[in-house]
Write a structure and sequence with these properties.
Layout: H1 3-23, E1 40-49, E2 60-65, E3 68-74, E4 80-87, E5 97-102, E6 109-113, E7 119-121, E8 124-132, H2 139-156, H3 162-178, H4 180-183, H5 192-197, H6 201-217, H7 222-234, H8 238-255, H9 258-275, H10 281-295, H11 303-312, H12 316-348, H13 354-364, H14 370-393, H15 397-414, H16 420-427, H17 430-449, H18 451-463, H19 467-484, H20 487-504, H21 511-522, H22 532-543, H23 550-575
Parallel strand pairs: 1-8
Antiparallel strand pairs: 1-4, 2-3, 2-5, 5-6, 7-8
Length: 578
């Protein structure tokens, strides 16, 4: 599957995106309602919520007065609705107002309102109410769950390219929603607008921007030079070199995001391994595992931590104090495992005449364009500054990446250093970006249908007020789920559950938040698709001709994920960090 195909798909999708996203952000309503001169005005507003007190978007609301429909509308993305209609003067006092609420995968509800329940000011009547709908496991739930599982089977057993498998699953859910779901609303999984809203464009644009920056920097020879310098530092000892890179990756991932770190370091690692005739995957796999562990240690290292910190009011230092030590311990285990698994491969790559080989690397791997490199490093430094301070600016990190990419690519084109079409087609990993887009849609579908909510309810039911059971369920369910599902929507679903458990279980305090963070972030190490950094790193390696299967990655990564989560679990039970 050529990159031109994915490039065309991506361009078409991004061209359509602005209109698509705008289409799902406002409440839908029916035709204009008639104006009754001198009549009484009724204003009804509120929020439709699920049993986790999360807003329900696109819920259908029909308002009837004495059995006659007077308004038909849908909730906005935040679950809010506002209805305004008129009745002939004096009819409000004797009228019965019914609010009918319906949403696929939820139990329909009708709320009857009398005039006594309305607030009044002159000839204006007001009602503000929140309505909670219970989940039901209808046809849309089972269909979306089956399609989701089948898509993962195709990916796991490599029956299709992961991008194609995700695209088929996403498009099939939409097709069923708009064909069978039109005939019978119970089969409507989610709307096209909801599918577009589930795509995290912050992640997509962050990846794209950093791919462009790395693509420009590749033309300077800096990655080859870094390979030479790292090898010189390790003095030919490949295992020690890998340890240096593991530690460096973990520290960078704690202060940048782990995806950006791997975009910057993957090229370096590949160049080192190529120079040693070593399969780059023997170094890249430990590095990507280290990036996910290191990103767990701080508030800004991984998206679930950002969400948890914002929801629970936890600070940067709260995360460092509670999680840095257990992340460091997990890194020590990773180093030991790396020695056991790949020690023989590292030993085989050892060069006998180290000094002579270092001189050879120094001659071959030198900076080829110092001017472009100085521009690139300046732009990268500014982007990193924005990454670190994005909370102060209330700015998404993708803005920093796109701005840096725009400035750097403009400089490179104006000075004639690069070819734009070559950069777009060869250096931007379009299959990876498209995979993320379709994966977000897949996860958005099962989230909308209630699969993630069902898992959260199951945890709440089984915990029974026990700290041990709650901590165990949260960290292990989060880890297993995050290995196979994007951890962002799962974390969002778990936030109110953990908040409730933290208040009702004696002694829990912030410990359950750390269980969620450790499970969601460490769990990403389980499979290729468990974390964004995994997909990006393996995608770059694959584009260079070094491919690893879903099972091949999982064979090494999943046991380490289990061990690291077990360490984190014991740490939480013993020390209960607050």
């Amino acid at each position: 599957m050529g990159k031109r195909f994915f490039f065309c798909l991506a361009v078409i999708g991004l061209m359509m995106l602005p209109g698509l996203v705008l289409g799902g952000h406002g409440p839908k309503s029916g035709p204009p309602k008639p104006v009754i001169p001198g009549g009484d005005t009724i204003n009804i507003s509120g929020i439709i919520l699920d049993n986790h007190n999360e807003p329900i978007d696109e819920a259908e609301i029909i308002i009837k007065v004495d059995g006659k429909e007077v308004d038909h509308l849908f909730t906005a993305h935040n679950g809010k609705f506002i209805s305004r209609f008129q009745l002939p003067k004096g009819e409000v006092e004797s009228a019965t107002i019914e609010i009918h609420v319906h949403k696929t995968c939820f139990q329909s509800k009708t709320l009857a309102v009398t005039a006594d329940e309305l607030a009044r000011k002159g000839n204006h009547y007001f009602l503000s109410t929140d309505i909670v709908l219970k989940r039901v496991l209808g046809p849309a739930f089972w269909i979306s769950t089956v399609i989701f599982v089948l898509a993962y089977v195709l990916i796991a057993f490599e029956l299709l390219h992961r991008t194609i498998a995700a695209m088929i699953g996403a498009s099939l859910m939409l097709l069923i929603s708009y064909t069978i779901g039109t005939i019978n609303p119970e089969y409507h999984i989610f709307s096209f607008e909801r599918a577009m809203a589930s795509i995290d464009m912050n992640v997509i644009f962050l990846l794209m921007g950093m791919m462009i920056i790395v693509g420009v920097l590749k033309n300077t020879g800096v990655f080859q030079w870094c390979a030479y310098f790292a090898y010189k530092l390790a003095k030919g000892r490949v295992f020690l070199l890998t340890v240096y890179l593991v530690i460096f990756t973990a520290v960078c991932s704690a202060f940048l995001d782990n995806v950006t770190t791997m975009l910057l370091l993957t090229g370096v690692a590949i160049e080192i391994c190529v120079s040693l005739s070593l399969n780059p995957l023997t170094v890249l796999i430990p590095l990507v595992l280290a990036s996910n562990v290191g990103g767990t240690a701080t508030l800004i290292g991984d998206p679930p931590n950002i969400m948890i910190g914002s929801y629970a009011g936890l600070t940067f230092m709260d995360f460092v104090i509670a999680l840095a030590a257990v992340c460091g311990l997990s890194l020590v285990v990773l180093v030991v495992m790396t020695k056991l698994v790949w020690g023989k491969a590292y030993a085989a790559a050892k060069v006998e005449n180290v000094e002579q080989y270092i001189e050879k690397l120094k001659e071959e791997y030198r900076i080829t364009d110092p001017t472009l490199l100085s521009y690139g490093l300046g732009v990268l430094a500014f982007a990193i500054f924005l990454f670190l301070s994005h909370g102060y600016w209330h700015m998404e990190v993708s803005v920093a990446a796109l701005m840096g990419a725009s400035v750097l690519v403009t400089i490179a084109i104006v000075t004639g250093k690069i070819n734009l079409m070559h950069l777009i087609e060869k250096d931007i990993e379009w299959p990876t970006l498209m995979f993320f887009i379709f994966l977000f849609i897949l996860v958005g579908a099962v989230e909308s249908a209630g699969l993630l909510s069902l898992i959260a309810d199951w945890i709440l039911h089984l915990s029974k007020g026990s700290f041990f059971i709650s901590c165990t369920l949260i960290i292990w369910v989060a880890a297993i789920m995050s290995a196979f599902v994007d951890n962002i929507p799962f974390t969002a679903t778990m936030l109110p559950i953990v908040a409730y458990l933290s208040t009702v279980i004696p002694g829990a305090e912030n410990t359950l938040w750390w269980a969620l963070a450790l499970g969601a972030c460490f769990g990403g190490n389980g499979t290729i698709i468990g974390a964004s950094a995994n997909v990006v790193t393996i995608g770059i390696a694959e584009s260079r001709g070094y491919r690893i299967s879903f099972g091949g990655f999982m064979k090494t990564a999943f046991p380490y994920m289990i061990i690291s989560v077990l360490i984190a679990h014991i740490w939480l039970l013993v020390f209960r960090p607050h």
